[in-house]
Design goal:
By secondary structure, the protein is mostly beta strands. The protein has helices at about 30-35, 40-45; strands at about 20-30, 50-55, 60-65, 70-75, 80-85, 95, 105, 120-125, 125-135, 140-150.
């Protein structure tokens, strides 16, 4: 049996490129979101069920939600919870508490994109990752981390 070296640098066909792997770090600051929109500014809050678009996921991207997590930097409203998913849904996080600072939440096994989904979630066309607050929200800051890779 022969061995053939087709790795990068050997001048052959295979090329390994690590630049396409990423971990999206998405800061979410409630005061900044409210200040960025005239309707929200006038209301002084993000209303329950308002859909906040966090990220335009490019086509041909695979996300690994089993490794995603939400960090609560500054607590939101007492008893407050959030949902994170596609089109204002709850595929990643459903009813996650934002009431305590310095806490990290990982995706639950029972979530649509839970830890049983080790293969990743494919975005063959452009879509968005969105957040909704279960009750009105006026304070808090959070960071959403989502690893993945692109194919282009």
């Amino acid at each position: 049996m022969a061995n053939y070296d087709v790795t990068k640098g050997a001048g052959a066909i295979a090329e390994l490129d690590f630049n396409r792997m990423f971990c999206a770090r998405i800061p979410i600051v409630v005061a900044d979101i409210i200040a960025s929109d005239a309707t929200l500014t006038a209301a002084g809050k993000i209303a329950a069920s308002d859909v906040i678009r966090l990220w335009d996921v490019p086509a041909m991207t695979v996300l690994y939600p089993c490794f995603a997590f939400l960090k609560i930097v500054t607590a939101g409203t007492a008893g407050g919870t959030v949902n994170v998913g596609i089109a204002g849904s709850t595929e990643m996080f459903s009813g996650v508490s934002i009431a305590t600072a310095d806490v990290i939440h990982s995706v639950e096994d029972s979530a649509t994109w839970g830890t049983d989904n080790y293969g990743g979630y494919e975005f063959e066309s452009t879509d968005t990752i969105d957040m909704t607050f279960v009750a009105d929200e006026t304070v808090g800051s959070f960071i959403l981390f989502i690893p993945g890779c692109t194919s282009d």
